[in-house]
Amino acid sequence: MKTRAQKEIELKAAEVLLKDSNALAFADFTKVTAEDLRRFRREVKSAGGDFLVIKKRLLNVLLKQKGIDFDARQFKSAVGTVFVESDLEHVSGPIYKFFSNLGDAADKPARALSVQKILGGYDLKSKTAVDHAGMVMLGQLPPREVALAQLLRMFIAPVQAFMYLVNEKAKRSSS
What we know:
This protein is α+β, with helices and mostly antiparallel strands. Helices cover 57% and strands 14% of the residues.
């Protein structure tokens, strides 16, 4: 059991992280090995976030102090909080990738259960909560550059098809 002083130190650390954050993501870390947890911290850090395990009650106190209307006690399991400096979209991909690769690659039900550990998120700028399904959907989206390349390909495809037809018609008429 933590003392009041330890809880205050933990609350201050979370307050510093929240001050620089634009979004929060929540994940269940139960039955995740210590090595996997360290790997998760590194992946989240490289995506521009910080992972902190804080009691739900202390997290609620912190959020209430900052005027954020969100109740972390809605989650049944232990909650780890990812404090995100950029948007929620930037960190949801690495979170999804980590949890989808957590289970055995051949065991699809175990992998599906691992993805269930993504609990949700909260966008601090728009003050909206994101549920599990929304976080998984955001995590499955391709990176911005890939999405733009796919969109460009969709615009170019009809022009390429037309140019192919014109080229073939020119070959036939010259023969």
